[in-house]
Fold each of these.
Amino acid sequence: MFIDRAKIQVKAGDGGNGMSSFRREKFVPKGGPSGGDGGRGGDVVLIVDNNYNTLIDFRYKRKFVAPTGVHGQSKNMHGKAGEHLFVPVPPGTLVKDAESGEILADLTEVGQQAVVAKGGRGGRGNARFVNSMQRAPQFAEKGEPGAERQLFLELKLLADVGLVGYPSVGKSSIISKVSAAKPEIASYHFTTLTPVLGVVRLDDGCSFVLADIPGLIEGAHSGAGLGHDFLRHVERTKIMIHVLDASGLEGRDPLEDFYAINKELALYSDKLAKRQQIIVANKLDLPEAQENYLRLQAHFAKEGYEIYPVSAATGEGLQQVMQRAWQLLQAYREEPEVVDEVKVYEAKEEILFTISRADDGAFVVSGKDIERLVAMTNFDNEDGLRRFQRIWRNLEIEEALQEKGIQEGDTVRIRDMEFEYRQHG
């Protein structure tokens, strides 16, 4: 089964906790702090693996969690970092953040990697907090939680040449003749519901990848029929072979078909509309197709298109088309992206935290630094709690809450921690 879209959840490893300990040796009865740091959590890394050509594995496993870092130990021994979790994906995988839609990576080359979730920092041991004012700190940090997010994976075929055309014009028959691919072939529309890849090998030893892509219909650019599924895969092809049913036996005019499909390509992407096309007039083994071909040839000659008469049933003319596709591939050059204007990005003042109201009336304090502080503070430790309160005051969060109208007894929430607000006199 060909699966070309998947939604997965990734969770990087949490950092290991720092250790709070003191040297207790025979001749050093009151040694200094000796707590080691926790190890960093492992990252979640997507890596391109040529052994995969579909996203079907993600149908059965959707959550990927990297190992956590090891906790710090006494005698200044630091914890080992968690190993990275490598998740194999097929070439051509586009990675998006499920919440924002932001493209995180476009993975096309074998071995290419993308870190999609960073492991949490290891907590610092109490030995790290020694200073001139505090000679014997009795607290240590907890490990930072690893990043967690949901991802959309989309597979776009990495084919050199794509066969495009209406359903049942003979694309599947053509790819079965010129490659070892074995698509399902039948007389009804939409036989090919999933893309089929085949390697075309020419007599001189040259080869390229050819894709038989599901048939396109009008309205595809807005998602009708197999629209977006089709267009997503044709995006990466360098050359298109546009297959027409020259016989017109199904009551459709091949000329109208040609312009209808090109309209859909242009509506979906200007870049696609500029792709070089070879026109193939198929079913020339039928008398009706032979009559139509002369009309098609005269018309496309005026438009500057190359047209080739072929018969997928007999194989006649197909080698000439494949040879021409190879020549065009050698001359293909990717157009540089046109930038309309130069954007100047100004540095934004970093927002330390924000305050909002939850549905239950609680005041929710959000911000990378304050949330990390909460996650890494051991509130059961008196010294750790005092450090938290000191940083809280330095960030002037209490003043900001008062400006928002907080009252005695109201709930304040930071991450998964809640406390009741008490005003200090």
Note: The chain has three domains: 1-155, 161-331, 354-420.
Amino acid sequence: MHHLPLNQNISGWLAQHPQRAVFPALTAAIDADWVVIGAGYAGLAFARRLAALKPAWKIAVLEAGTAYESASGRNSGFIIGLPHNIGSSTAELKKAHAYRQLLQAGMQRLKALVDAHRIECAWDAAGKYHCQVAVGQEKILQRYCASLEQMAEDYQLLNRDELQEKLGTRFYHKAIFTPYTVLVNPALLIAGLAATLPANVTLYEHSPALALDYQRGGVTVYTATGAVRAQKAMLATNALSSHLLPGVRRQAAMATFASLTPPLTEQQLARLPQMTSWGLTPVNAIAGATLRFTQDRRFLLRQHVIPALHGNISARQTQRAARLHHQLFRKVYPQLEDVAFSHCWSGTISVTRNGAPQWGKINPFLYTAGGCNGAGISKQTIAGELLADYAVGQDHPLLAAMQALGKASWLPPSPVLDIAIHGALQKERWQGRKER
């Protein structure tokens, strides 16, 4: 129970929206053909696709909290259609063609679902700025340009003056703009996906999986107040999977923090150029900051990454992040000294040692899709959907691209893992020290 996801804070994405429908908790022992653990993008995509492939099957989905308050609803809301670097690593760019196929397929799948079910999630095909702060640190941007040219993708290289007109700040020295990114309210998106599952899928919220028990011909998943007996299970718990499977240690949980302002007043907007909504990612995602200007005239800032190996984030850690966000926002927008953040919240991401996902068959009864490495909406959507095809032996043209990404490397246990993560974060912060 100590390893269940817990954020001692409230997501700002939900602040101006009515409470979403809460699905019942599991309070009995039930039978199903498949049980899915985790109602994030991968888990819901897997359940939806499996239900379509096998409409006679009964599928149960277990969620520790609620779908819209989970990590999937707490991110920055970037649905990315092109690979980019995470931190100073260019692991994704080395397999750019496979990642591009998968990310764009995931984005197209989400767009089809949003349109078909009329999911109100502030869908905004705004593109993305990939921004560099420091002068003379062009290597990562140059590699990204080379990768985009190799893929024949459109992009714009913008200087400081051009960025000031687009973003309202001279904080950034240079940026690459790519059009293939959609911005959303992620909490409303995941809530809409959960509310529109097929009839043969049942979602149980506030039903954390506490143990797996393999028996002849199937698996039983136990919760605090019930159990699901199924032929097979799909693990969509991402970085926290190792707590259910102690011997399968290929992902580590990190926490990131985001802050959101109230809508800007007319007086505050007058200090900025006329801007449409936009989103930017930093060249170093560990040291730098992700920023958004939303359709409803808010600023979102995501910065500060810490280890969260058990998935628990304290109020004290949130307070520290909020203070750092306030200081950074003053540097980026000194003309908005009277703008304060109304919410600061956290969410966990999964990182793997070599940038590859943990995807596929773990044993005869268990499959998994995890290892999003901080860019999970489109990636995990297509990973979950393809895993359903793979699990039932259904051919799919993108399975080869998914398998080409390789497998996540093994990670050592604590305390070695803790020391290694601390060292890796310190290295990233040092390499990106000029980006803050």
Note: Residues 227 and 391 are 22 Å apart (CA to CA).
Amino acid sequence: MRALTEGRPPWCPGAVVLAGRGPVVAVEAAAGWAARYRAHDPERDRGLDLPRDLWEPMRVGTVFDLASLTKLFTAVVTVQQVERGRLALDVPVAAHLPAFAPGITVRDLLRHTSGLAPELPFHAHADRADQLALLWAEAAAPSGPHGAHRYSDLNPLALQLLLERLTGRPLDALVRAGITGPLGLGSTCYGPLAPQGVAATEDQRRPWAKVDRGPLRGEVHDENAWALGGVAGHAGLFSTAQDLAVLCRTLLNGGAYGTTRILDPASVAALLDPPGLGFAVDQPYFMGELAGRGAAGHTGFTGTSLVLDRATDTFLVLLANTVHPRRRAGGSAPRAAAATHLARAVAHADPSGRP
């Protein structure tokens, strides 16, 4: 943990790590600061400290802006609709959203093989119709090749619109009814949130950011998710390591947690089996030595990540505020190192199965 928060420069001001195997939580620790800086000084390229008595320590229950980990929740609620027979993975998206080019399927959206652009400047438009016009234009004539992997925030945004049209319910209601409510994830929700107890993110200003919003804490960091109202298929959820651990155990248990089931085992397999639906599979850059045997997970721009390894029944949640007080190209080496530590610990576990 110290390596994450005390390097020169540190990877992040603060972090929470939670790892487990089977029913055992092996590691649950926090280090550093959930909030330390009041702003970023671009002339000296460093954070400007809050008064020392206002620094907030990181705690294992600190709430984080999940950023792209939100995509996993969108994927789960999509597969729930497939499971219920209301949606099919290989049906053309145009059957539900007529603006889409022929040939793009729901599976393409989940696997990032639609050809859609990585992102669009929704933040540059205040009007919802103008924002959607950008998406419809890209959907009608994708700028990338269909079938090739091209990671895009537009894919889960399209899934959000499809799900909302299909069910008549907003995405946040679907997530609450399908995941957070049944599993009792009381700290997982869309913002905005009161700042206390929430990890601070960025002093969001141009030129390093896309919009000028100032210091953010409890408001979604992603500029497009913010412009779209805070509830978006690609970003917007807040959560804790403990809540994410419950989701991890649910998926490792084949969709059940205790007496609660949110997915059938076949649906979990569809999400996690290579190449994954919404989940990245066997990516060493953040999974370290857990990669290579079907490990699945995701990262988030704010410093969040999780990894599931069904081969050893282990999971790792690492949450950090790497964009506090401003975004940098910090890389994922600390994520990979944490995953490698877990992989090696499991390899040396005793016969009882304890990590």
Note: Confidence is low (pLDDT under 50) at residues 351-355.
Amino acid sequence: MTSFDDQQTALKEDTENIKCPSCGGNTEFDPASGGLKCPFCSHEIPIEATFDQNVELDFKKAGTDLNHLWKDDVRVFSCGNCGAESVLDANVVADFCSFCGSSHIAVTEHDAGIAPGLVIPFHISKEEAHAKFQDWIKGHFFAPTKLKETYRLNKISGAYLPYWTYDSKTFSHYVVRVGNYYYVTETRTVYEDGKPRTVTEQVRKIRWHQQSGNYRKFFDDVLIKASTTVDAKLLQNVQPFQLAGLTDYKTEYMSGFLAERYSVSLQQGFKKAQDYMEQRIVNGIEGSVAGDIVEVVNVSTDYSDITYKHLLLPLWISSFQFNQKVYQFIVNGQSGKVAGNYPLSFVKIALVSIGVLIVIFIVYLLIQG
């Protein structure tokens, strides 16, 4: 049976298809220099960052423009365990899933779909990601000691996660219920010590009316995650990505890494974007209508001039199994922020709980004494 180390080496060698002009070895993308580097002779090849593809694409024409589809030099591998699909070079043989660690990997008939136009290259190296994991797991006392001793750090993989961004003009017709405060003078009788007393005070009332109107808003670069394989809470904990670091996608940035094929389609992503837009539209309407209280009754919105971009954002991912359960640990490949799930040691929890109870009991005895 092929060991994990052999599988990792095979995958790494297969993805490194850009040769070193000095020694002929396979080069890797180097986060430190932002270029390609040969691990054998340390020869470096700079990558010129360009920004020609930082353009909005027509949402209605998506999938029909062959210039924006992945080419035949890539193919899709699917994990039979977690369902993740990875886009790799056509010559690659994927031996394990970077998202769950499973070896149940097979080539699928799926085409890679819409190609990315922009990417944030990795800024954090694999060695830095290893160190961050070590610091992270050491800082969690309730993680099992066995996990800290047996975790295979070489299972960490660099993967580009897919995202969509959407632009859209919106025109909304709304109906709102508006309340305005007014005050009236009211006199009432109160009793103090059994004796009646007349009290006059100002009481606030609300006068309601209904009105309608139109509201326009332009949305720019609404970011929607196009992946379902990474734990959403973990991903939220390592955000944000600084989109100012986006550059044109080039195959050189993929050398030694992989890209996840989007599992949220462009159309599904736009529906998620609409949910975000609709809430902002409601907030905008409430803020634009004059009144002490504004309650939105109905909103009907038309979306026009919809455009999109396909982005790849960098993430170091480690999935490990402990007691037959999969846990994920991730590092933002741009900022270095970390987040992860880990099993709890019930023995440690029990010992700490017992210790706390003993301390409480001793304090109680001292107080009683």
Note: Helices lie at 4-15, 126-138, 145-150, 232-238, 266-288, 346-368.
